[in-house]
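for the record, two folds in this file. i put them one after another cuz i was lazy. first one right below, seq on top, structure tokens after. the second one comes after a little note so u can tell where it starts
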Amino acid sequence: MLETVMAFIKSLPAWLGAVAEILVVAIIFMTAITLLGGIWIGFCIARKRMNQIAEIEFFPPKITFKEREKE
């Protein structure tokens, strides 16, 4: 799919193609930063209960915690 987008960009006028290439790179970069930030924030939130984690599944994303013992 990226090849198709890049082929379309190459068919545009030079100035518009340069702008479009910069936008595509910026979108990919910001998507990666957002994904890494989300993972980091998720671990920061889960860190408080890290000792209670029983299982972590990545596909589908799910964290299972141990049941709390009632006194």
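(here's the note) second protein begins now
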Amino acid sequence: MMDRLTLLASDCNIAKQANQRLEELIDFAAEVGAPLVTVGGFRGRLAWSEEENPREILIAILKSAAERAFNLGVRLALEPLNRYETDIIPNAAEGLELVQRIGHPAIGLLLDTFHVNIEEASITDCFRDAYQAGRLFHVHIGDSNRLPPGKGHINFAAIIDTLYMLGYSEYLSAELIPSPDPDTAAIDTAEFIQRLLR
């Protein structure tokens, strides 16, 4: 985002650079042994594209990227973002629908509790649906105010219990405002979540 690169940029040169960056990120992930590459705001917005059918263009880009990732032993995790940050894939259901249309085993979802809190009717059903579809690749945790868990009103006990009962064994990672500072936010997050783990 610092380089202002998005896959659905109105400038075709910027969109091309963004696609190249995605390929570079996949290659880098493979080199360092990272299990996945996430695609969140980097996808851009449908409204930014001047193409006739930007959704189909995004599907084609992600399908190609998924194949590259698969060949290198990496997966792509598409992150639904709330309606204030995107006009495409604001929730898990739309994410699963797009992933199904792409139809590649190397692409799934990253569900972020901050966005889930805004967009989902149930704080737990979206995790269950994504997991049962075999597409829950990663989870971001952050409270309703983007602070460390326990500083807002999200019911993390229900989420952790759901993930445990489903058998989710991938990572939980914090994506939040580093308040009062990054180290304290990390410690607060780890301590809070560890109390909920069995």
